[in-house]
Design a protein that fits this description.
Distance between the termini: 57 Å
Strand content: 25-35%
Structural class: alpha+beta
CATH class of the largest domain: Alpha Beta
Strand order of the largest sheet: 13-12-9-10-11-14-18-16
Oligomer: single chain
Length: 430
């Protein structure tokens, strides 16, 4: 069996960089129907012959309401899909509800909701007897002080529903709480950053030390049939903005295996039994710990890294999961290459004057990819504003990790040029 000729509904197309995902799905012979809100860039996919249909739906941020809108749009258009999926974090709960209503393959709504809420992730993990950091919901500054008195420091303040570490800040003392609370609330206030139209409480939780990893899993009938691990570089604390990663990891192999085992046990306990899942976790001094569970494929170019290193197409695997087709994966026994991914942030608040890159000659399967996230002349924020502006996302492959690191350093040898603003900065987290 193959996905060729199947009709698949994509709910929530996400940012324009995800276009390459939909082009790959079209290559599989899938008839794509996109359900998105008015004015979204994804409408162009129809005129570009990537998608067959584009349906306008109202997006409120409330999964039940948005799922009903998708179901109505499908009924009005006479579309009867064979599967429904998304590669966009905020649409995962909607997809679970639409799949359940249509009777097509999908992960259980309650399992997806537990993964989507960082608080529910902690509660479910604790109920299952799995190691997990202490965490409390916070709706006000008073509740933040109360949580801190019980959990202690160091700790993390983060949004309950988030992605890409937006609004996540480390806090180390009671004196810093009010400042951190204001910073986090401000960072998640605008819909241009995240889709928080349905609201978002905060969490105060125990800080996890150690090295962080991304564990990408392919599940079939409740069992893992493939896993890939990428090792994250230290984040830009007090924020938790990612700075880069490499794949395959070079951390202690036994510790990494224990983290993969915990990741599998966690998703199985949640009831996430099919498709591609993205779990973030740490190898800490106390053992493996889960940071968060995502009931969808990892973002960015992670699918390209996995295919380059292991020869596994996560996009095809995700489509197979959504259609209830058996996974037919033939991963390489050894890494076929190494990947280094480096994120370039603004070093100061001001105007971006230049964003130079050096030349390099990659010798791996992915090559050198530079995704620009900012434009010359744009106003940018530096670390004095806690959350710096992402300027570029650089990925390079090579035959060895050492060579990939060298090529990345060569490409990034010239720093961005920023003209600082006098007195810029919103204050530190303390």
């Amino acid at each position: 069996m193959s996905p060729d000729g199947a009709t698949v509904v994509i709910v929530g197309a996400g940012y324009p960089g995800k276009r390459r995902i939909y082009e790959r799905i079209a290559e599989l012979g899938v008839r794509i129907v996109v359900a998105e809100e008015a004015g979204h860039w994804s409408q162009q996919l129809v005129s570009d012959a990537v998608a067959a249909e584009w349906l306008e739906v109202e997006v409120t941020g409330t999964p039940d309401t948005d799922a009903a809108a998708v179901l109505d749009a499908l009924a009005d258009a006479g579309v009867r899909p064979d599967g429904v999926l998304t590669f966009w974090e905020f649409s995962v709960p909607v997809v679970a509800r639409v799949a359940a209503a249509l009777g097509v393959p999908g992960n259980p709504v309650e399992a997806v909701d537990a993964a989507r809420s960082k608080l529910r992730t902690r509660q479910v993990s604790e109920h299952m007897g799995l190691p997990t950091p202490k965490s409390q919901r916070v709706r006000s500054l008073d509740e933040l002080y109360a949580a801190a008195s019980e959990i202690g420091f160091p700790a993390v303040v983060k949004p309950e529903f988030g992605a890409s570490a937006v609004g996540c800040v480390r806090v180390d003392s009671t004196a810093s709480l009010s400042g951190v609370y204001a910073i986090v609330r401000r960072s998640i206030a605008g819909e241009e950053v995240m889709d928080f139209r349905a609201g978002n409480d905060l969490l105060f939780e125990e800080y996890l030390d150690g090295v962080e990893f991304d564990v990408d899993l392919v599940m079939q009938d409740g069992e893992p049939v493939f896993s890939s691990v990428s090792q994250n570089w230290p984040t830009a604390e007090p924020s938790f903005q990612e700075t880069g990663l490499h794949c395959p990891p070079d951390h202690n192999a036994r510790a990494v295996r224990r983290l993969v085992e915990l990741s599998v046990n966690t998703v199985q306990g949640f009831g996430l039994h099919r498709g591609v899942l993205h779990v973030e976790g740490k190898c800490t001094t106390q053992g493996p710990r889960i940071v968060e569970v995502n009931a969808r494929m990892g973002g960015g170019r992670i699918h390209e890294y996995v295919e380059a290193v292991w020869g596994v197409d996560l996009i095809e695997a995700h489509v197979h999961g959504a259609l209830g087709l058996p996974q037919r994966l033939t991963p390489s026994r050894k890494p076929r290459c190494a990947i280094v991914n480096a994120l370039v942030y603004a070093s100061a608040t001001g105007r971006l004057a230049a964003l130079p890159f050096g030349t390099s000659t990659p010798d791996g399967r992915l090559g050198l990819e530079i995704d620009l996230e900012a434009s010359v002349g744009q106003m940018v924020s530096g670390p004095e504003d806690v959350f710096s502006t992402l300027l570029a996302d650089v990925s390079v492959s090579a035959k060895s990790l050492r060579r990939a690191r060298s090529l990345a350093a060569e490409a990034l040898r010239e720093p961005p040029v920023i003209i600082p603003l006098a007195g810029a900065g919103l204050g530190s987290a303390g």
